[in-house]
């Protein structure tokens, strides 16, 4: 139900608290692939911590301040996307993504992010979509470029990841740019 296809064998759909066990198993499976860049990869260790995380996004969704989706390949949860922030007053939102090694390199995340951007601009009237990443995260930088975002600069040492202060590169896309593309 409520799934959107990304490829013949892949789809994106909401990821909700009732899927906590499946999400916990997924995080264990992809931890090594995503933990250099995703803080919750280290803190979600079981169904209980997975449920807490999914409930946080369910609350954000209820307040129209965020959303979380999973990407399933052949019925197995392999990655996902989030509106990490969503501000319907200022009309700004931030998209985040992750994908385990088994699903990387197929353009699935790019396709999923395009659907989110279409919805944000086309349905919700957002003015600006942001993408935040570590400037050394080459795959994430490549995805931002592929999606046509513009790099606005790097907030120096703005984020703590695995005990180390890291830069946060800010990318953005404006509604008019998306329509023109
Ligand atoms: C960032 C991340 C999601 C990117 O995953 P990805 O699979 O490279 O992303 P895409 O879906 O855009 O796929 C692009 C790749 O698919 C290939 N591809 C194949 N068909 C494609 C298509 N139709 N459209 C676009 N790309 C396609 C591209 O050539 C590219 O491959 P390459 O990197 O070998 O050149 C992934 O690396 C990841 O989860 N990393 C760890 C977590 C993370 O860093 N998250 C982001 C935090 S800011």
Automatic annotation (TrEMBL):
One of its GO terms (molecular function) is protein N-terminal-serine acetyltransferase activity. It comes from the Bacteria. Residues 10-176 form the N-acetyltransferase domain. SUPFAM superfamilies: Acyl-CoA N-acyltransferases (Nat) (SSF55729). Signal peptide: none annotated. Transmembrane segments: none annotated. Gene3D superfamilies: 3.40.630.30. One of its GO terms (cellular component) is cytoplasm. This is RimJ/RimL family protein N-acetyltransferase. It comes from Actinomadura viridis.
């Amino acid at each position: 139900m409520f799934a959107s296809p990304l490829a013949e064998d892949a789809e994106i759909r909401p990821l909700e608290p009732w899927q906590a066990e499946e999400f916990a198993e997924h995080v264990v499976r992809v931890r090594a692939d995503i933990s250099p860049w995703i803080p919750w990869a280290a803190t979600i260790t079981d169904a209980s911590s997975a449920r807490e995380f999914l409930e946080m996004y369910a609350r954000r969704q209820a307040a129209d301040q965020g959303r979380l989706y999973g990407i399933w390949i052949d019925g197995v949860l392999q990655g996902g996307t989030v509106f990490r922030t969503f501000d319907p007053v200022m009309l700004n939102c931030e998209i985040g993504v992750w994908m385990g090694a088994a699903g990387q390199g197929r353009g699935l995340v790019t396709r999923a992010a395009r659907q989110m951007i279409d919805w944000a601009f086309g349905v919700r009237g957002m003015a600006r979509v942001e993408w935040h990443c570590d400037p050394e995260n080459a795959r994430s930088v490549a995805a931002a470029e592929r999606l046509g975002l513009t790099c606005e600069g790097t907030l120096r040492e703005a984020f703590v990841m695995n005990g180390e202060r890291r830069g946060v590169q800010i990318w953005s896309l404006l509604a008019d740019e998306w329509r023109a593309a």
